[in-house]
Design goal:
- By secondary structure, this protein is α/β, with parallel strands linked by helices.
- It has one domain: Ribonuclease Z/Hydroxyacylglutathione hydrolase-like (Metallo-beta-lactamase, Chain A, 4-Layer Sandwich), CATH 3.60.15.
- Helix content is about 15%, strand content about 30%.
- β4 and β5 form a beta hairpin.
- The chain is globular.
Length: about 260
Amino acid sequence: MRLTYFGANSWLLELAQQRILIDPWLVDSLIFGNLPWFFKGDKPAALDSIPDKIDLILLSQGLDDHAHKPTLKKLDKTIPVVGSASAVKVVEELGYTQITPLQFGQTFTVGNCIEIRALPGAAIGPFQQENAYLLKEIDSGMSLYYEPHGYPAAELKDYAPVDVVISPIVSLELPLLGAIIQGHKTALQLAQWVRPQVFLPTAAGGNVKYDGLLNSVLHTVGSLDELRSQLAQHGLSTQVIDPQPTEPLELNLLRQVA
């Protein structure tokens, strides 16, 4: 399994000769609701690139930091897309031609070699819950779980062990409203549930510069070192790796027994 991190929630997964682009923000700024005064993110120029030979685009949410329209406009519209209901609406409007919405419990197979299962993810408001994904190489059983807001669903325990987890390890909190990303609260629990060999933090990395009113009131809680300490205290051998943006990370994983 090979992974390349592009900052924020953007990942390229290479598994079983398939290249899956996850929640890509790869060009231009990240702006919510076309309101740069409210929130704007900018990546270093070195992260401003589009990988080639993409077999699938996997979108967990329809929000701008997961279904980034400037990036999706630059990608080939014939690349198959799998996504949550809200993400599907975005790519439909952009003219993508091969789109598969996944509801919780449904699966999609990539190249007859990778099964993608949708699981409940983050709640966005009172009426909308987005997707998390469990990806499994069919021949080897090697698996990866991705959820970018720190909302692991209890049914994930039914699929343990999971080899690699990509999920936040810090929380981003707003005054009075609480956490919008709650990795600090749930990362240890997630590791206890699925006993991953590797835990990769997402959402807060990549040397991204954020500005705007929303960013000025966000408060970060947690750290890599804190999670490592918690894992050790609970007897978990999970390796927490801080991925370096654009540097491919080759994971040499052991076969785990359920």
